[in-house]
Design goal:
It is built from four helices and ten strands; from the N terminus they run H-E-E-E-E-E-E-H-E-E-H-H-E-E. It is α+β, with helices and mostly antiparallel strands. The chain has one domain. The strands form three sheets. Strands 6-5-7-8-9 form a five-stranded antiparallel sheet. A hairpin with a 5-residue loop joins strand 1 and strand 2.
Length: 189
Protein backbone atom coordinates (compact mmCIF):
# COMPACT_ATOMS: atom_id res chain seq x y z
CA UNK A 1 0.00 0.00 0.00
CA UNK A 2 1.33 3.44 -0.98
CA UNK A 3 0.79 6.24 1.60
CA UNK A 4 1.71 9.65 0.28
CA UNK A 5 -0.11 12.00 2.68
CA UNK A 6 -1.35 12.40 6.19
CA UNK A 7 -4.59 11.05 7.42
CA UNK A 8 -7.10 13.35 9.07
CA UNK A 9 -6.35 11.74 12.45
CA UNK A 10 -2.63 12.48 12.10
CA UNK A 11 -3.33 16.13 11.18
CA UNK A 12 -5.69 16.59 14.14
CA UNK A 13 -3.14 15.01 16.50
CA UNK A 14 -0.35 17.25 15.17
CA UNK A 15 -2.47 20.42 15.45
CA UNK A 16 -3.54 19.44 18.99
CA UNK A 17 0.06 18.87 20.01
CA UNK A 18 1.14 22.24 18.56
CA UNK A 19 -1.76 23.97 20.36
CA UNK A 20 -0.79 22.46 23.71
CA UNK A 21 2.87 23.43 23.23
CA UNK A 22 1.89 26.94 22.09
CA UNK A 23 -0.38 27.46 25.10
CA UNK A 24 2.31 26.21 27.46
CA UNK A 25 4.91 28.55 26.01
CA UNK A 26 2.56 31.58 26.05
CA UNK A 27 1.54 30.83 29.65
CA UNK A 28 5.20 30.64 30.65
CA UNK A 29 5.94 33.93 28.86
CA UNK A 30 3.01 35.68 30.55
CA UNK A 31 4.04 34.33 33.97
CA UNK A 32 7.62 35.44 33.36
CA UNK A 33 6.51 38.92 32.34
CA UNK A 34 4.28 39.21 35.42
CA UNK A 35 7.13 38.10 37.67
CA UNK A 36 9.48 40.62 36.03
CA UNK A 37 7.02 43.50 36.47
CA UNK A 38 6.37 42.51 40.09
CA UNK A 39 10.10 42.15 40.78
CA UNK A 40 10.86 45.54 39.21
CA UNK A 41 8.17 47.23 41.31
CA UNK A 42 9.50 45.53 44.48
CA UNK A 43 13.07 46.61 43.70
CA UNK A 44 12.10 50.22 43.00
CA UNK A 45 9.92 50.22 46.10
CA UNK A 46 12.64 48.80 48.34
CA UNK A 47 15.25 51.30 47.11
CA UNK A 48 12.83 54.24 47.45
CA UNK A 49 11.77 53.12 50.94
CA UNK A 50 15.38 52.63 52.07
CA UNK A 51 16.25 56.06 50.72
CA UNK A 52 13.45 57.72 52.71
CA UNK A 53 14.39 55.77 55.87
CA UNK A 54 17.99 56.91 55.48
CA UNK A 55 16.83 60.51 55.13
CA UNK A 56 14.58 60.24 58.19
CA UNK A 57 17.31 58.71 60.34
CA UNK A 58 19.81 61.38 59.25
CA UNK A 59 17.73 64.26 60.64
CA UNK A 60 18.77 65.83 63.96
CA UNK A 61 17.50 63.76 66.89
CA UNK A 62 19.81 64.03 69.87
CA UNK A 63 20.35 65.61 73.28
CA UNK A 64 23.12 68.00 74.09
CA UNK A 65 24.09 70.25 76.96
CA UNK A 66 24.05 74.01 76.89
CA UNK A 67 26.70 76.31 78.41
CA UNK A 68 25.05 76.02 81.83
CA UNK A 69 25.16 72.20 81.67
CA UNK A 70 21.40 71.75 81.17
CA UNK A 71 20.15 69.05 78.82
CA UNK A 72 18.91 70.40 75.50
CA UNK A 73 16.74 68.24 73.25
CA UNK A 74 17.49 68.79 69.56
CA UNK A 75 14.96 67.53 67.01
CA UNK A 76 14.54 68.56 63.39
CA UNK A 77 10.90 69.62 63.03
CA UNK A 78 11.27 71.92 60.03
CA UNK A 79 12.86 69.95 57.16
CA UNK A 80 10.68 69.39 54.12
CA UNK A 81 11.28 65.79 53.10
CA UNK A 82 9.02 66.06 50.05
CA UNK A 83 11.68 67.94 48.05
CA UNK A 84 15.23 67.09 47.09
CA UNK A 85 17.48 68.62 48.33
CA UNK A 86 15.90 69.17 51.74
CA UNK A 87 14.63 72.65 52.53
CA UNK A 88 12.89 74.17 55.53
CA UNK A 89 9.14 74.57 55.74
CA UNK A 90 8.23 70.94 56.32
CA UNK A 91 7.33 68.70 59.23
CA UNK A 92 10.74 67.10 59.82
CA UNK A 93 10.41 64.48 62.57
CA UNK A 94 7.06 65.64 63.93
CA UNK A 95 4.78 62.69 64.68
CA UNK A 96 2.48 61.91 61.78
CA UNK A 97 -1.25 61.23 61.83
CA UNK A 98 -2.06 57.58 62.58
CA UNK A 99 -3.16 56.87 58.99
CA UNK A 100 -0.24 58.57 57.20
CA UNK A 101 0.88 55.28 55.62
CA UNK A 102 -2.56 54.51 54.21
CA UNK A 103 -3.61 57.84 52.69
CA UNK A 104 -1.82 60.81 51.16
CA UNK A 105 -1.06 63.20 54.04
CA UNK A 106 0.63 66.53 53.33
CA UNK A 107 4.20 66.50 54.64
CA UNK A 108 4.29 62.69 54.76
CA UNK A 109 3.94 61.78 51.07
CA UNK A 110 5.73 62.28 47.79
CA UNK A 111 5.45 60.78 44.32
CA UNK A 112 7.94 58.90 42.17
CA UNK A 113 8.28 58.31 38.44
CA UNK A 114 8.62 54.87 36.81
CA UNK A 115 12.32 54.72 37.70
CA UNK A 116 11.76 55.67 41.35
CA UNK A 117 12.98 59.27 40.98
CA UNK A 118 11.17 61.75 43.24
CA UNK A 119 8.78 64.11 41.45
CA UNK A 120 7.59 66.14 44.45
CA UNK A 121 4.40 66.21 46.48
CA UNK A 122 2.08 68.54 44.58
CA UNK A 123 -0.93 67.69 42.41
CA UNK A 124 1.12 67.87 39.19
CA UNK A 125 3.60 65.31 40.57
CA UNK A 126 0.72 63.04 41.58
CA UNK A 127 -0.68 63.14 38.04
CA UNK A 128 2.68 62.06 36.54
CA UNK A 129 3.57 59.52 39.24
CA UNK A 130 3.99 55.78 38.88
CA UNK A 131 4.59 55.24 42.62
CA UNK A 132 3.44 56.88 45.84
CA UNK A 133 5.80 56.99 48.82
CA UNK A 134 4.27 57.61 52.25
CA UNK A 135 5.96 57.66 55.63
CA UNK A 136 4.82 57.70 59.23
CA UNK A 137 6.70 58.95 62.25
CA UNK A 138 5.95 58.03 65.85
CA UNK A 139 7.78 59.00 69.00
CA UNK A 140 7.85 57.31 72.41
CA UNK A 141 9.45 58.47 75.63
CA UNK A 142 11.17 61.73 76.44
CA UNK A 143 14.65 63.16 76.84
CA UNK A 144 17.66 60.96 76.18
CA UNK A 145 15.49 57.81 76.21
CA UNK A 146 13.11 58.97 73.48
CA UNK A 147 12.71 56.69 70.47
CA UNK A 148 11.62 57.69 66.98
CA UNK A 149 9.72 55.05 65.02
CA UNK A 150 9.65 55.22 61.23
CA UNK A 151 7.65 53.33 58.63
CA UNK A 152 7.79 53.88 54.88
CA UNK A 153 5.36 52.51 52.31
CA UNK A 154 6.01 52.59 48.57
CA UNK A 155 3.25 51.39 46.25
CA UNK A 156 2.35 51.68 42.59
CA UNK A 157 -0.14 54.57 42.30
CA UNK A 158 -2.72 52.33 40.64
CA UNK A 159 -2.58 49.94 43.60
CA UNK A 160 -2.72 52.71 46.22
CA UNK A 161 -5.77 54.24 44.51
CA UNK A 162 -7.57 50.92 44.03
CA UNK A 163 -7.29 49.72 47.64
CA UNK A 164 -9.46 51.68 50.10
CA UNK A 165 -7.58 53.82 52.62
CA UNK A 166 -9.49 52.09 55.42
CA UNK A 167 -7.98 48.70 54.55
CA UNK A 168 -4.22 48.91 55.30
CA UNK A 169 -3.72 45.15 55.52
CA UNK A 170 -5.08 44.71 52.01
CA UNK A 171 -2.83 47.46 50.64
CA UNK A 172 0.24 45.96 52.32
CA UNK A 173 -0.45 42.59 50.66
CA UNK A 174 -0.76 43.93 47.10
CA UNK A 175 1.92 43.19 44.47
CA UNK A 176 4.69 45.76 44.30
CA UNK A 177 4.01 47.26 47.74
CA UNK A 178 6.99 47.63 50.07
CA UNK A 179 6.76 48.57 53.75
CA UNK A 180 9.97 49.06 55.74
CA UNK A 181 10.32 50.02 59.41
CA UNK A 182 13.16 51.43 61.52
CA UNK A 183 13.73 52.93 64.97
CA UNK A 184 16.19 55.45 66.29
CA UNK A 185 17.12 56.10 69.91
CA UNK A 186 17.84 59.70 70.81
CA UNK A 187 21.59 59.89 71.29
CA UNK A 188 23.56 62.14 73.60
CA UNK A 189 26.17 64.42 72.10
Amino acid sequence: MDRRGFTLVEVVAAVSLLTVVGLSVSTALIAGRTAAVYGRARTIGRIAAQSRLAMLTSLAFYTSTDAAGAEVVVTDTTSDLTVDPLTSGGVGLRPSPADALWRDTAGYVDYLDVTGRALGADAAARMRAAYVRRWAIGRCGAGAGEVALFAVLVAPVATAVRVPAGDPARLRDQPGVVVLRATRLREAR
